[in-house]
Design brief:
The chain is an alpha/beta fold and 346 residues long. It has eleven helices and 14 strands. Strands 3-4-5-6-9-10-11-12-13-14 form a ten-stranded mixed beta sheet, with helices on one face. Bound molecules: iron/sulfur cluster (SF4). Iron/sulfur cluster binds next to helix 4.
Length: 346
Amino acid sequence: MAAKADALALLPKEMQTFVADLGWEPYRANQIFKRLHAKMALSIDEISELSLAMRALLKQKAVIGYPVIAGRTASREEATIKFLLRLADGKNIEAVLMHYNNRSSLCISSQVGCSLGCSFCATGGMGFSRNMTAPEIVGEVYVVARALGRRINNILYMGMGEPFYNYEAVMRSIRLLTAPEGYGLSQRQITVSTCGIIPGIERLAAESMQIRLAVSLHAATDEVRSAIMPVNRIYPLSLLISACKEYQARAGRRITFEYTVIPGINDGPDQIRALAGLLKGLKYHINVIPLNPVGGGKPGLREASSFSKALDNAGLIYTLRRSRGTTIGGGCGQLADKRLGNRLPG
Ligand code: SF4
């Protein structure tokens, strides 16, 4: 028996082919796509435009690969909510919702675990389990939006995993989320964050997409960066910054550089000087993030604030990020709840 299609994975054109193969009229494709991506139907039974017999046939040919919400933890003022999401094979991932000024941003995962082992990141300590599929990625957005009864305005590919190590599924998920006949997000409402995978930056530059690129920099010399981000040994800073410059020349958009301040490691004057040199000639913005200790404890606000002042003195453009969700283990670098319980290789 042929494997069932995941209906949530199909782009509008692919849905037309799928519907034609079932012998249905073309307008059914739009009905199904709309129901799945605009109305965020969680099951085939919710596609009420189709007769019961059609839904029965669709169930024989397709599934909907949604994650389910297995737990949620909210910060005291409900400004940040961390969702534990269970995938069909029992693996768990996390997504973090942040409310700010009547807008909702969702930080989503693109892999179960991560292979890159950044020293300040709990996900890195979990190891890598598997890539997520495009329906699992868009499913994070839809299950959370449905649970809240509210539209999510911004999507950040900044949760568990390195998006460019799952490039095809991530790009498909972006095309699904931005299809006008579906959820209809603008590409500018999407940020993809990489820890500096140069082939991914080059591929994205060739896509002619309007999405925003963020690069997790976290240090400005190879010595320090390689010590806290092993990926720097493969893609050192000089090559990474050249790739960013080429990306900017093609895409024309400002790049955000994420900088988690690790007291005593990457906040010295040498790093500030090196940073000023690296970013020369780029349109950039630095997000300064206080360190969220992996095992809990107070974020390093004081050190992040001193680092910001030093950036100021050097004439660099930055924003000191408020630490969101740290009390619920939902801050940057904290996504690896004990309840994740994924069985990882090794
Ligand atoms: S910071 Fe990102 S790339 Fe580094 S280990 Fe964590 S999830 Fe992976």
